[in-house]
Amino acid sequence: MADEALFLLLHNEMVSGVYKSAEQGEVENGRCITKLENMGFRVGQGLIERFTKDTARFKDELDIMKFICKDFWTTVFKKQIDNLRTNHQGIYVLQDNKFRLLTQMSAGKQYLEHASKYLAFTCGLIRGGLSNLGIKSIVTAEVSSMPAYPDTGLHPKTPRSQPELKPRVRCSTNCATQVLR
Amino acid sequence: MGTMLRLRHNKDLFVLTYGALVAQLCKDYEKDEDVNKYLDKMGYGIGTRLVEDFLARSCVRRCHSYSEITDIIAQVAFKMYLGITPSVTCNNSSRTEFSLILDKNPLVEFVEELPAGRSSLCYCNLLCGIIRGALEMVHLAADVTFLQDRLKGDRVTEIGITFLRKLDEKKYRRKK
């Protein structure tokens, strides 16, 4: 979809812009990540507000997390979360096997260290969305790379597939109580 | 209903993200001109890449005049990415200066008014940079600025495109 392209490009420019205009020490002390996360937070709040105007009340925290994984993720990233795990004590791990904001990047190992810059906004997005639904949370993300697909041998000239980036968004909620009235 | 809702919300994502960006820039830069410049530069970066996406999605044929190009920007590109079709006017007899009049502007959907003390802020300056960057990738140099801005109290929002001397005259001969 056309507007997805626009958002992807804007997001990329925002990330590089924040780092380019970073002042002394801001990269090291995490100020850049914080800026991106805060912007995502604002957007997440706004999105959830628009989104849930017409939806039914959520039953419980898990219901909310499922909403994030399905409807919310589909709206923002055109696909659902591939895997949701929880310990039923406030920790949720959302796994996206083809995270849209990273698919454009080369998947070489040297880029993994930069992947966190491209995850900050999304972490904020989730945290902001949850916040407006009454859930206080800490959202972190990590990326692990998958081994390359094995060479089938049928087309020896075909280059090996790039390793996949599998960002895992770990979402730990520390206030499961007062949320749902 | 599900798809329509999602389409609308996806545009919201861009609009809200843009709003968060402008808000952050207002925190980082005291002077309006600095925010405007930053937005223009950012837009330029986006435009140079967006044009590839645009050419891949649309079937525009080679243009032979600046007015054709401006029409395509208004009727195809704006429609494709922002869902609006600004009207086009030509402002000079040599047909190098044009205006895009935006009656509706989705970028400002959630903006009631400019923040206090920010009267010179060109909230949508990203658009100027995008147009400028995109044109440059197809070998056209242009000045793109806001001539009128509803957020500043004008009746309409008007983007002015002034095509400058281009490098390769032969390919893009103007229609008289």
From TrEMBL, chain B:
Q: Which InterPro entries match?
A: Bet3, NO_sig/Golgi_transp_ligand-bd, TRAPP_component
Q: Which Gene3D superfamilies match?
A: Trafficking protein particle complex subunit 3
Q: Name one GO cellular component term.
A: endoplasmic reticulum
UniProt subcellular location: Endoplasmic reticulum; Golgi apparatus, cis-Golgi network
Q: Which keywords appear in this protein's UniProt record, sorted alphabetically?
A: Endoplasmic reticulum, ER-Golgi transport, Golgi apparatus, Lipoprotein, Palmitate, Transport
Taxonomic superkingdom = Eukaryota
Q: Does the keyword Electron transport apply?
A: no
Q: Which Pfam families match?
A: TRAPP (PF04051)
Q: Which GO terms describe its biological process?
A: Golgi vesicle transport
Name the major location.
Answer: endoplasmic reticulum
**Keyword match Transcription:** no
Q: Show the SUPFAM superfamilies listed in the entry.
A: Ligand-binding domain in the NO signalling and Golgi transport (SSF111126)
Q: Which PANTHER family match?
A: TRAFFICKING PROTEIN PARTICLE COMPLEX SUBUNIT 3 (PTHR13048)
- What is the purpose of this protein? May play a role in vesicular transport from endoplasmic reticulum to Golgi.
Q: Which family does it belong to?
A: Belongs to the TRAPP small subunits family. BET3 subfamily.
Q: How does it assemble?
A: Homodimer. Component of the multisubunit TRAPP (transport protein particle) complex, which includes at least TRAPPC2, TRAPPC2L, TRAPPC3, TRAPPC3L, TRAPPC4, TRAPPC5, TRAPPC8, TRAPPC9, TRAPPC10, TRAPPC11 and TRAPPC12.
Q: What is this protein called?
A: Trafficking protein particle complex subunit
* Gene giving rise to this polypeptide: TRAPPC3L
